[in-house]
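// run 5 | inverse folding | seed 20
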């Protein structure tokens, strides 16, 4: 082997080894994971004047448990400090299609129908319902 060839082999080996050193010193590229189809549903209920305690009792005593029975996972429930007669909550579903099926099964549930009827003997406790479906971002603490 000539001196020139030996030098080329040595330089190539050095560059090859340097590649591993540089690779280990560089920060790893971020790994982007595909988000599942899980969806979160933000629901806002407005109750008639004076009926929010009745609505809260229905959720506390019955609705949450019936949600669980139909695959609707409760994330949290809130009463805004500056908006009277309002209940806001978030539930999750395995997918948007599953949400549709969950709500259909929930609405047909005989226990729910009985609870809904009994909770409104003194008048309606829900005047308006707004619903928004959401997908968690990759930087969200909840997914």
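// decoded
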């Amino acid at each position: 082997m000539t001196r020139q060839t030996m030098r080329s082999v040595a330089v190539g080996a050095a560059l090859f080894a340097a590649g591993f050193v540089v690779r280990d010193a560089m920060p790893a590229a971020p790994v982007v994971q595909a988000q599942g189809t899980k969806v979160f549903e933000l629901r806002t209920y407005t109750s008639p004047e004076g009926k929010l305690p009745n609505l809260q009792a229905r959720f506390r005593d019955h609705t949450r448990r019936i949600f669980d029975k139909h695959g609707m996972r409760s994330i949290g429930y809130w009463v805004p400090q500056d908006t009277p007669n309002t209940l806001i909550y978030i539930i999750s579903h395995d997918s948007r299609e599953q949400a549709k099926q969950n709500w259909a099964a929930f609405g047909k549930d005989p226990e729910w129908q009985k609870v809904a009827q009994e909770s409104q003997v003194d008048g309606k406790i829900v005047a308006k319902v707004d619903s928004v479906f959401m997908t968690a971002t990759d930087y969200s603490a909840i997914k």
